[in-house]
Design brief:
With 309 residues, this protein is of the alpha+beta class. The chain has 3 domains: 59 residues, Structural Genomics Hypothetical 15.5 Kd Protein In mrcA-pckA Intergenic Region, Chain A (Roll), CATH 3.10.290.10; 93 residues, Pseudouridine synthase, CATH 3.30.2350.10; 149 residues, Pseudouridine synthase, CATH 3.30.2350. 17% of the residues lie in helices and 25% in strands. It has 6 helices and 15 strands. Helix 1 packs across helix 2.
Length: 309
């Protein structure tokens, strides 16, 4: 497609101009095309923020739309528990739960569709079986619904906050109190839209509770319980205390972690989940062992310094 910027569009950002002229495509999709070099301004690749001038010629080479239905992909799954209604997997760090934001393959959903004949349809064709999510670089316990009845039951349990979720997090600095609660609303950061923030008075209510498991020289290992499941909740809450999760650059962790071996992830692991089996009503508790790369990371940390008096 070839577009010519006239006086009305002059001064607008490239991505904004495209969105006004091609409203059937989302701005995120248009920005991805710009990054991929599928949009040229006067024959040159430009940034999304590039202001247009009167007479500029914009050429657009649209990419094929992603599938509207997730497809099966042969990938391994670490299955922790399975019955007729649910399956609980140990999600590895780096794996996205379902398609979105430019990711259309290699997701947990793609792997689930390969391993299981049927999953619930409540979440739609792109999110079959998905009742809740974990951040891309958070590992650990994730429960999946095999049928719609199980999905509705689990969704109600999450909504009523009866699901018990326990995480392990390594944070920077020395957390003073052995036990604490954080009750701060969480909202989208108005400046950096990829982040969330707990510094505003508005937002969705969120509650986290932590217990100190072990102290190191410059780090603290915490067990964290959450009764709500807001986006980036643990990461945001701990960062609000001045103790960002180790390796979490988005929320203020230093670039150098201060240890020899640091994997390309942050130190947050969903260790345990306890929920009610949808058909029997019996409690189910599932645990995921700490990944080796996190154990090695922790093993490299110097112990807490002993102050002699």
């Amino acid at each position: 497609m070839r577009l010519r910027c006239d006086g009305e569009g002059a001064g607008a950002r490239l991505d904004q101009y495209l969105h006004s002229r091609l409203p059937s495509y989302s701005r995120s999709r248009l920005q991805q095309w710009i990054r991929d070099g599928r949009v040229l301004v006067n024959g040159q690749v430009e940034r999304a923020a590039r202001p247009l001038r009167d007479g500029d010629v914009v050429d657009v080479d649209p990419a094929a739309l992603p599938p509207l239905k997730a497809t099966a992909e042969a990938m391994p799954l670490d299955i922790l528990y399975e019955d007729a209604d649910v399956v609980v997997v140990n999600k590895p760090a780096g794996m996205v739960v379902h398609a979105g934001a430019g990711v259309h393959s290699g997701t947990l959903v793609n792997a689930l569709l390969y391993h299981f004949q049927t999953l619930s349809h409540v979440g739609g064709d792109l999110r079959p079986g998905i009742v809740h999510r974990l951040d891309r670089f958070t590992s650990g316990v994730l429960v999946v619904a095999k049928n719609d009845g199980a999905h509705q039951s689990l969704a109600e349990q999450f909504s009523s906050r009866t699901v018990e979720k326990t995480y392990v997090a390594l944070v920077h600095g020395k957390v003073k109190q052995d036990h604490g609660r954080i009750e701060k609303p969480i909202a989208r950061d108005p400046v950096r839209r990829v982040r969330m923030t707990a510094r505003l008075e508005r937002g969705r209510s969120a509650r986290s509770e932590y217990f100190v498991l072990k102290r190191f020289d410059k780090h603290t290992l915490l067990e964290v319980h959450i009764s709500t499941g807001r986006t980036h909740q643990i990461r945001v809450h701990l960062a609000s205390l001045g103790h960002p999760v180790a390796g979490d650059r988005l929320y203020g962790a230093p670039a150098v972690a201060g240890v020899g071996r640091t994997p390309g992830r942050f130190f947050l692991h969903a260790q345990r989940m306890r929920f009610t089996q949808p058909s029997t009503g019996h409690p189910v508790e599932v645990m995921a062992p700490l990944p080796e790369e996190l154990q090695h990371w922790m093993d490299d940390l110097p112990p807490e310094a002993i102050i002699k008096t």
